Target: Aldo/keto reductase
Amino acid sequence: MSTTNESSPLPFLEGRAHLGLGSWHLGQGRRDWDTEMQALIAGVQLGLSVIDTAEMYGDGLSEELIGDALRQLPPGSGQPFLVSKVLPHNASRRGVVRAFEASRQRLGVRCIDLYLLHWRGSTPLAETVAAFEELKAEGKIRHWGVSNFDTDDMQELWRIPQGRNCVVNQVLYNVQSRGIEYDLLPWCREHGVGVMAYCPLGHSDLIGDPLLAEIGDRHGVGGTAVALAWAMRSGQVIAIPESGSAEHIHDNAAALSLKLDADDLARIDAASPPPRRKQPLDIL
Ligand SMILES: NC(=O)c1ccc[n+]([C@@H]2O[C@H](COP(=O)([O-])OP(=O)(O)OC[C@H]3O[C@@H](n4cnc5c(N)ncnc54)[C@H](OP(=O)(O)O)[C@@H]3O)[C@@H](O)[C@H]2O)c1
Model:
């Protein structure tokens, strides 16, 4: 596997880095609003321009925080690539349009770059895809994708009209959860679907991990940069770590120029072996 994280072979990203910014817990009082907003701005300025959010996060508060950050971005900061998600219970043809409009308003934008189905619910996939295609035809979203889809879900999506227009599957992936390497990651690579890795820091379980810290010491970076560079090493994966701290985001951004060598990868494999058989998709 290549260990270069600087360029993007995923055309929809238009050359942006494969490292973005998550936002599940942002805008909800863990830190004050301005601190988290400035952290997002700092991240975009460091080149972490894919911002991931969802109508679900803080019931819209995360999208509002991101909207404030976008309005305060200094000129020349680059154009962030916005990702948001519709909840399964809003995934009907009309529900998608309503949910999209509310997200768009909270974000304060005309167009959302990438709109995802957060996870599968009872609405037929074909209906959600039709709604996504309608938003795309109207120029309201640029691309659409899915989240928490296992290989059989992707195969089903590929069988429905326009299902092959999906550009991303956002799933849980980190050094302690490698099940997707067995079948889903190869399937997505073969079918030109980008994989967005959520919980790339194990939802904070990997913070302070001794092996990652030791590998990081060798490269003059922290363990979180190692975890992120590892997640992005195939060139097919976009990692979206969350942080409300500009300092932590700065540490994470070191992953952009970190090249893990064969010895680093072997040590991680020894501690967390790649899957040898199909595993159910991990979901948080
Ligand atoms: N599609 C889905 O179903 C789904 C599910 C889960 C998550 N997501 C997306 O993926 C994003 C990331 O996942 P996640 O938030 O669950 O977990 P994560 O990114 O693996 O971990 C986030 C945690 O790591 C801490 N952290 C980040 N950088 C750090 C650093 N350099 N040093 C120390 N601590 C650091 C953060 O705290 P600080 O704020 O203190 O830095 C936060 O507690 C979410 O925010 C969301 O956008 C999607």
